[in-house]
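Troubleshooting log. The previous structure file for this entry was overwritten by mistake, so regenerating from the original sequence record. Sequence copied from the archived sheet and checked twice against the printout by T.R.
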Amino acid sequence: MSEQLIEEPSSLQANMKTLTHVYGIPEDVTSIWIQEEGNELLEIQKTAIENFGLLQGKSIIITAPSSSGKTFVGEIAAVHAYFSGKKTLFLVPMKAIAEEKYADFVRKYRRFGINVVISTHDRTEFDSNILAGYFDIAVIIFEKMNVLLTQSAAVLNSCGLVIVDELQLLNERERGPGLEILLTKIKVLKEASKGSFQFLGLSAVLADLNQFDIWLNAQQCESKMRPLELHEGVLSPNGTLKVQKFNDGTIYEEKLPEIDKVVVPSSEPMDREESDLLQDSILHRLLLVCRHYLKEGKRILIFRKWRALAVSTAQFLSRELSLRPASKVISVLEEIENTNSHDVLTECLAKGIAFHNSDLLPETRLTIEDDFRSNDGQIKVVCSTSTLAMGVNLPCSIVIIPDALKPDPDAEAFHEIPITTSEYKNMSGRAGRTRFKEEGVSILLANSQAEAAKFWKNYVQGRLDTLSPSLVKRDLRKIMLDLFAGELCKTEEELQKLLLSSFTGFVHWNRTHSTREGFIAVIAGNCQFLLENNLVKRTGKAILVPTDIGKLCAASGVEIESFILLSQNLHRIVPADWVPWQIIFICLHCAELTNRFKVTFRRVDQHSVWRVLEERNPKNHETLCSWSRELLNDTIETVKRVQTSMLLVDWINGMEMRDLENSYTSNQRDRFLSGAVRDIASIVAWMTDSMRRIAQELKYDKEFCSALRILSERIARGVPAEGIELHKLGVRGITRTVIKRLVDAKLANLDSILEARPESFRGIISPHLAQRIQEAIVRNIEESLEYTKRSQIIRIEKQGRDSGMIKGLYELEGIRLEDAVVELLNSPPLGLGAKRMSKQKEGEPDIRLVLPDGILVGSVTASKSPISDKKCAEIIRSGAKMNPTSFVVFGRPGFHKLATDNSPHVNAQLDSLKSYKLISMPDLGELFVAVVEGKINKTKFVEILMKSRGLILAQKEVG
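Regenerated output below.
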């Protein structure tokens, strides 16, 4: 494909206003971009637009250095697609990146009516809308997009633009195969469709695309230049900083003061004492480098290889540098959950230093990032783990990399390996603040002259990666089941053909006769495995179709071995008599969690673990522990899972994180566990929900399945069941500790909180926080109504119908709202002949509907908060004289929990031929839209109105 290499800055003076005048993006939008990005388009942005047809729908692969502005190219394309009537899938590799981008897009673009949604493994609230095409921009992590495509390939049908960020992750051992098969699906599905389609890939600079652009039928837009110069240096122990300019290649040296006075061990450390001496020398050199650049007013980002090193480095620098306190950040963090990391962070912030690692809550990390990015921010130095380098948004003046090693993720025991050139470039590329026109400096800290020479050769002048096929010698069973379940192939031959059309097939499997034959043999063996495990079945001689359980396995996204383990051990749980420990313990044996125990619990006191287990005495623990020892063939591994399962039981019951850390770590030095707890909890929650889906498929009791769903939410959030909805609000200050207090005080129900007087919270939480929670609940209700309204309007208009009556359900009040409900009931295809009672006395029903099955009377009511039980009861008293068959309350926004809880009792008091029900306006609108779309018919709608009882949920009725 054609390729343009950007060597010199363009003479074109394109700026943000050009996007309005030439490409029709509203000025209100470009004004936001000017405020946040500056008025001028960066070189890669101008080139993509002017030379590669970005805004004319051309498919492009952009390869450019960090901080070159390529991510904003995707944002421009997504917003332009919206104003051109197209939907966008914005695919990213990590949950943290997805959350940040989602929040950023909502903040900027919701005001323009752009419907932005998100989907990760634990953000599923928009999944049904994504599958139905009810969105404008969907931010989705790679693995979840694979799952959604397995559930319905049609999710691509309504999309005109797919953006894939961090495309270079094809080279990553763990993420590469999933990303490649996702790209293969997108390519195959879009080539088979007739609609216009644009692909935009965003990648770090690569040595060679290895024909990837040809395979994807896209042009490569490559820049090897940064908007501002990056000075890449290696600092020797003698204080000499050897530097090469990234853009023009100029090499120079300078001397940093006093570095040569620090004693650096002359050889590799052989024991703990020598290792401590080396770390001490690194810390003192870091201190001198920081002092040097802080005098120049620079912001410094230090990458350390371990979480503990990031923390100890921040502590050391905060003591020695004693910078001005980051008081604004400390003030914000006062309302975030206390952990050991949080306490240490606050101490560091008191002297202008922060650390940034996975032990911090996401909102804590975002607060640090926001301050560090700001030109008047108070944090001057941040110490971050290198593993967060890809997801961290921390542009700075100076990057320092003291560690050129990292833990080996594939090693059975702890082992370190060198970082790759790409990982180094990713970290060093954070240096330079484009927005403030500030060039960057990156410094590798060498411990000897020989190491300095090695770093210079391997990193500063190191060869970049070539994009490699990721499916070579990888387990293809999960991928194959995924393709069968997504109906992309139905025979072994079709499967071969599809996989041979992948990037790996394009450049590897089809390369020689022997590699192709080897590939075919692997496919045959894997098909046999899927058949033997009842994940696929034969229908006819050649047709292979997924079984129901196979479809479920593919849609869950879990490893096949994990799915089989959950399926085979579900029988160990007695639905009528079980405890959370049993579910958690079984889930901890899934393949996704195996590597987590290598780092989390390195020191295990077997005797104390068994003693605590016996004291707690969870149901069936003897049998389950025997099963575990037999399965793992390693008592220590079983003990680790017992310990972790007890930790997670304490977690879901609301134990404070600091108490968890102190209880489950062995000494003060290692008492930073919150990141690991949340990581493990997230995966166990996913496994628990997969078990729920298996139980549903196997027709287990509905109450048991519902309990598993609640348990999954509790594990993900670390709160009691009563606190789940409160935690979902996501408001700063509503910590797990606050939720536990409200649960204990029986004040966790959102309806109860809304109705509670200020004095009800005395001694539990502050009046200020209580008010903020109440405001958040009201705001959440309003946002939920607005989102549902927009979704229903889009769907009704897609059917060629006027959306006015739908809008009325959400926007009108009083008599006009009553008229809107009557109009809906009388509109085609319903035409029910409803009448509004024009001469009403106070409290009497508003609507009367005479049908062959009887008479319905309804009351229409709306308020800011959920409709009370008292209000709902009025219709029974006032409507009884009409002797109706059905009593209905149509309410907005919804109903108080007490009203829904009491509805079965009300129905029990009625004649068996009569019914009482509650229908919210969103559910009424949803039922009407479902009729218009043909998902249910008029008869079903009338049956719901006349015969259903209690709270009516459209999703349940429509299925």
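The longest strand covers residues 854-862. Archived copy saved in two places this time.
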